[in-house]
Amino acid sequence: MTRTALVTGASRGIGRAVVDRLLADGVRVCGLYRTEGDAARLLAKELDSASPKGLTLRCDVSSEEQVGQAVARCAEEFGGIDILINNAGVATFAMLDNLDLAQWESTFATNVTGPYLVTRAALPHLRPGSSVVTVTSGLGITGAPGKTHYAASKAALIGFTKALSREVGRRGVRVNAVAPGIIETEMSAAGLNPELRARYEGQCALGRIGQPPELAEVVAFLADPRSSYVNGQTLMVDGGM
């Protein structure tokens, strides 16, 4: 039976790499995105021409109404969901002295409330043997100046993963997370100046910044029956920071 994956934040960066990796495994993909543009159009074109054919839906994961509609549409279209990838996220920089409540709340709305809403909506449609994989961050463990709001939101996902794995394991649903280091995406590494990039590369045991397909490989492993006894884990994928 063809497996169906629901991927949030699917049009760019890590999400797009995950989509491509799942398609290579013959998984049918329902990709959610928030912002219209070239990336979303390219995603829709790829999923429309994929075999098996997928589905692309616009959805702000912080909206309960939009999430409910998108998840229901995916489950109805494909008869259920086997893989859920909570990838959508936002990141900004602000020292706590200058971090206003609106920025704090908007970060949590996408990074924490989003996975909660999507996962809660998807649970009734997850078949036995399903896998939930959430993209958190190494900063949820290590922290960083100017990232209190981001690090706190990603740390929340680590606790969410551990607790949910204990709730739904008896249903045959596994729940894991990946915690990437610096990955070459528009949201993280692409904006680094040469000095900061060199510093991160020097801190990494492998001496380089990671690439989205490298993280996608780990996500695909956790989504696959090959990892059938891996549950409640947060795997660091940071090259040895």
The tally of helices reads 8
**Category by helix and strand content:** alpha/beta
Radius of gyration: 17 Å
Order of helices and strands: EHEHEHEHEHHEHHE
Shape: globular
Low-confidence stretches: none
Report the mean per-residue pLDDT as an integer: 95
Largest beta-sheet characterization: 7 strands, parallel
Helix content: 40-55%
Number of β-strand runs: 7
Terminal CA distance: 39 Å
Strand line-up of the largest beta sheet: 3-2-1-4-5-6-7
Strand percentage, roughly? Answer: 15-25%
Structural description of this entry:
By secondary structure, the chain is an alpha/beta fold. 45% of the residues lie in helices and 17% in strands. It is built from 8 helices and 7 strands, in the order E-H-E-H-E-H-E-H-E-H-H-E-H-H-E. Helix 3 (64-78) runs parallel beside helix 4 (101-122) and helix 4 packs parallel to helix 6 (148-168). The chain is globular and about 50 Å long.
